[in-house]
Amino acid sequence: IETTRDVEAALELAALSIARTVSADMIAICLPLPPPARGVRIVALYPPTGAMLAQRGVTLPVTAHPLLATVLQTGRLERAYTRRKDQTLVSLYRSLGFDKAGPLLALPLVDNGALLGVMLVGNPFSQQRWTERSEQVFQAIGASVAAALAAACRRESPEQSAALRKALEEVRRLARLTT
């Protein structure tokens, strides 16, 4: 991630490996929206869903997702388990393009107190609950991703980052037109 010129593409490639490593049905890797907006933009989602394929730049505002707001505010791993009446978790999964909700872990990616992103892993299909070991592995992976993002941010100027994002969005748009 830190050595590539296109961080978002590298995160897309890493998503499947991370999901497999922690035995997750799904993973979403998100980057923070620029201020003054409060929320995150999904840059990698596995498996890709209609929500991600149909739209460019799917965002999750904190006002609509209390779990996300808590993660961003506390800077700590948060756990959510499916309860029939927990519409906030159901809403978060629907925003990601999944019909069913399941156990979810939300981990902020932080470097020296600065929020670099958020990773969400969930099990909407298997409904498998998270073990302490899988949480520890997820946190270790999150620390590695945060370190790589921090190194990439130090290397990239804001203008380069915006240009890369724009180029990647154009490639995605062209790919959708040809399929």
Cα gyration radius (Å): 16 Å
Q: How many H/I helical runs?
A: 6
The chain-level structural class is alpha+beta
Q: Proportion of β residues?
A: 15-25%
Low-confidence stretches: none
In spatial order, strands of the major sheet run: 3-2-1-6-5-4
Mean residue pLDDT: 82
Between the first and last Cα atoms, what is the distance in angstroms?
28 Å
Number of strands: 6
| Biggest sheet record | 6 strands, antiparallel
- What characteristic shape results from the CA principal axes? globular
Short note summarizing the structure:
The protein is α+β, with helices and mostly antiparallel strands. The chain contains 6 helices and 6 strands. The protein has a 6-stranded antiparallel beta sheet with strand order 3-2-1-6-5-4, with helices on both faces.
What would your notes on this structure say?
By secondary structure, the protein is α+β, with helices and mostly antiparallel strands. The protein has helices at 7-21, 50-54, 66-74, 87-96, 132-155, 158-178, and strands spanning 26-32, 39-46, 59-61, 78-80, 104-111, 114-122. Helices cover 47% and strands 21% of the residues. It has a six-stranded antiparallel sheet with strand order 3-2-1-6-5-4, with helices on both faces. Strand 1 (26-32) and strand 2 (39-46) form a beta hairpin. The two termini are 28 Å apart.
